[in-house]
Amino acid sequence: MGSLALKNITKSFGQVDVIKGVDLEVQDGELVIFVGPSGCGKSTLLRIIAGLEDASGGSIAIDSADVSSTPPSRRGIAMVFQTYALYPHLTVRDNMSLGLKQAKHPAAHIAERVDFASKMLSLEPYLDRRPAELSGGQRQRVAIGRAVVRKPKLFLFDEPLSNLDAALRVNTRLEIARLHRELGATMVYVTHDQTEAMTLADRIVVLNGGRIEQVGTPMELYNDPANLFVAGFIGSPQMNFIDAGLLGREDAKTIGIRPEHISIVPTNGDIKGRVSHIEHLGADTNLYLDCGDAGLLCARLFGEHQFEIDSELNAKFDETRVFRFDDQGKAIRRTP
Ligand SMILES: Nc1ncnc2c1ncn2[C@@H]1O[C@H](COP(=O)(O)OP(=O)(O)OP(=O)(O)O)[C@@H](O)[C@H]1O
């Protein structure tokens, strides 16, 4: 078991309010990811859940028991850090065993847990090595293994893949997904990487300036963002925003259209623009059109395309994918 409930959590450092009233329920077995711009309070919130930081107000419950004043070591959580935080003088086996040893578990039980975790993470060949004799990816697997060994109610991950190169990041991401599936464990995870959030999360929490903007499954956030902030934050390249008046659409203040929902047509487009830049990604082409007062429009076209710089093109929006926002930036939901 490992459900988590945050009620009206606030945090101030001196005069600065960093977390401004966060309510969140995480179900047992769920993988929830915090995303948001730098400084929005993701790590602070995670550290408050871990007990490494005291909240200024509000309460935290794990499995319905209030742990707001429980020390970190007694909350039943394990945290995996971006920097691995392994003991350099200890072997992999000893790094993984340490928590249970300190908690005075019997040696046979510790050996069994280390065996289980090292098999799960393919760490068996490295058990007698020290961290300096491992690659970055292997070190991060040891850090994850150390958490698995402790059978926590709740796993907390603070940007665990940020120090890995692109290929290793994908591998380790798949490993965390598998771990989550096989252990059925509750996980709360902080990242600034959209792909990680979209591919791993059961639900994503979008934070901005210490408040929650929206909570939803990755596809809910992509298909039904609550406001301009979430619409612009989820999706890459970013959603295009255009002043609705410039398009003759009086039913909204701002129109939003994702680059992947724009096509180039010979006539009768929604907007005209001059080609200002082209990015060839192989599988896709990102085309940037200078649309004058409407700004720069990005279209993501499937496959390879050639266009002449400065030539004028007609861009057409997939009407079923057009988002509308009011003058407060709130999404105007489609009427079915
Ligand atoms: N110990 C501290 N004392 C004062 N201010 C702090 C402290 N820790 C964090 N802050 C401030 O709180 C805000 C939130 O920081 P936090 O590290 O939670 O952001 P984040 O969303 O995790 O950012 P990033 O993505 O850059 O890691 C920032 O403005 C930061 O400067």
Q: What can you tell me about this protein's structure?
A:
This protein has 336 residues and is an alpha+beta fold. The chain has two domains: 4-230, P-loop containing nucleotide triphosphate hydrolases (Rossmann fold); 238-325, OB fold (Dihydrolipoamide Acetyltransferase, E2P), CATH 2.40.50. 25% of the residues lie in helices and 32% in strands. The chain has eight helices and 18 strands. It has helices at 42-50, 92-102, 107-120, 136-149, 166-183, 194-200, 218-223, 228-233; strands at 4-13, 16-26, 31-35, 57-62, 65-66, 77-81, 154-158, 186-190, 203-208, 211-216, 240-243, 254-257, 262-265, 271-280, 284-290, 296-302, 312-317, 323-325. The chain has a six-stranded mixed sheet with strand order 6-7-8-3-9-10, with helices on both faces. The chain has a five-stranded antiparallel sheet with strand order 13-17-14-15-16, with no helix packed on it. A four-stranded antiparallel sheet has the order 2-1-4-5, covered by helices on one side. A hairpin with a 5-residue loop joins strand 15 (284-290) and strand 16 (296-302). Helix 2 packs across helix 3, helix 2 runs parallel beside helix 4 and helix 3 crosses helix 4. The chain is globular and about 75 Å long. The two termini are 39 Å apart. The relative contact order is 0.12. The mean pLDDT is 93. Its main location: membrane. It is a peripheral membrane protein. GO terms for molecular function: ABC-type maltose transporter activity; ATP binding; ATP hydrolysis activity. Belongs to the ABC transporter superfamily. This is Carbohydrate ABC transporter ATP-binding protein, CUT1 family.
